[in-house]
Amino acid sequence: AEHQFALVVGLLTPWLLLAPLQAADAYHAETADGVVLLGLAGLWLLLQLAERRW
What pLDDT is attached to residue 26? Predict the structure, then answer.
């Protein structure tokens, strides 16, 4: 289960980092800022889950 969780985190992390960059190209700067904050919040949530697992 821990290996599967690590795999999920490993797959989601690049997406969370790339999504705000793609959104910045597609939308206005204000919208991109919101997406970046959302991505950071998601990454923080994953880190919190990882700390609880291990």
Answer: 63
Phi/psi for 28 (5° steps) reads -70, 165
Q: Which residues contact 43 (CB under 8 A, 6 or more apart)?
A: 13, 16, 17
Half-sphere exposure of 39 (CA within 13 A, CB side): 19
Quick: pLDDT tens for 27-43: 656 666 777 778 888 88
Token look-up 């190209």 returns 25
Residues 1-22 as b or e (16 or more Cβ within 10 Å = b) = eeeeeeeebeeeeeebeeebee
